[in-house]
Amino acid sequence: MVLRVSTNTGQWKEPASKVTHSLVNVRAIINHFNPKIESYAAVNHISQLSEDQVLEVVRSNYDTLTLKLQDGLDQFERYSEQPKEAAFFKELVRSISLNVRKNVSLNTLSQDLLLKEFSTIS
Predict the structure, then answer these.
(1) Rounded to the nearest 10 degrees, what angle do helices 24-43 and 51-61 cross at?
(2) Which one, of 95, 96, 97, 106, lies nearest residue 115 by Cα?
């Protein structure tokens, strides 16, 4: 999808091109190991490989993997205690809190039920 957007004209062309460029190594890893894993499964007559079997394939074929050295890895944005997105998330949490206060009546729930409800939130 990103590749399609990056080849079209429009406001998202440049960000999509950056994402496409960033995914070069991810695609290289997938394109390198998928055939090796499928071949291992076919040779050993296995339909579902275990984690250990996949790790074995990766370890035995890692030396033939070629990755592209990314530019600009030595440059980074310094960590900020107050990142630029903080205002957005502060407003989002405030909105959610107000919505919950407005739509959920805590008085009608017993403390046990309330704690049980909150313990299942993931």
Answers:
(1) 110
(2) 106
Short-list 36, 44, 41, 38, CA closest to 64: 36
In this structure, which amino acid lies at residue 121?
Answer: I
Q: What is the share, in percent, of the chain residues with pLDDT greater than 70?
A: 92
CA dihedral 35, 49, 24, 5 (to 10 degrees): 100
Give the type of residue at 92: L
Q: Do the Cβ atoms of 16 and 2 come closer than 8 Å?
A: yes
The crossing angle, in degrees rounded to 10, of helices 13-22 and 24-43 is 50
Q: What do you get for the CA distance between the two ends of the chain, in Å?
A: 30
The answer to whether the pTM exceeds 0.70 is no
Alpha-carbon span 86 to 61, nearest angstrom = 43
106 band by pLDDT with thresholds 50, 70 and 90: low
